Amino acid sequence: MLDIIYDFFHYDFIRRALIVGLLVTLSASLLGVSLVLKRFSMIGDGLSHVGFGAISVAAALNVAPLRFSIPIIVIAAFCLLKLSQNSKINGDAAIALISSSSLAIGVFINSLSTNIKSDLTSYMFGNILAISNDDLVISIILSFVVITLFIFFYNRVFLITFDESFAKATGINSDFYNMLIAFLTAITTVIGMRLMGALLMSSLLIFPALTSMNICKSFKSVVIFSAVISSLCFVSGLAFSYRLNTPTGSTIVIINLLLFIVSYIVSRLRTKAA
Description:
The protein is built from 13 helices and no strands. The chain is mostly helical and 274 residues long.
């Protein structure tokens, strides 16, 4: 145990992964509660696929992946929101349409380009060795923006999550706050892709929220508990992946899955006892 703690603070790549991971999991857990309750939880999966396509294009053009991907994923988030609200295409269909198209574009560009330095697996499933110092700085700044805006607009986000019609009736611009949630989700997805990968990023949005809902009752307690268990699952996953030499992203997801199963069993037992 002491060896793992020493390594966490001794190796640069682990320190970077630890900082980025904690910031990403905290941001994702805060947003995930609203996304799950609004039945739009798969937006993270769709946006991560868009990110994979954007990163593939950035790698082919030999430009900074994060800086190139951010505006593209933000635009994609707004498009997904508009498609689900104002089109005959339902939200899940819109996500499937955009995510599958983006994934296909990314794979196609990867197969043609000779400029891509990292292999396809690192983009799909994440790689803590790929987190550079520039990625660390950008991640800290963007995570601070996400967490600050969520806390500042917490009451409005709470209202449109549970009763959007009432929010509109009271004069709240629900469209703006829906766009804000989409924007923050897009930013969180971008900074988490380098660590978790395109195929696993959405788990950080979904699992902590579902686990918390099995245990807690109020929105505030769910948000707080989601942030706590998400951070604990990440640190545990990083430690186990380092010790067992397993992929970091998948190890974190498995720990989240096990914790969700335990919370579900506890919730069922509590219901039967009542």
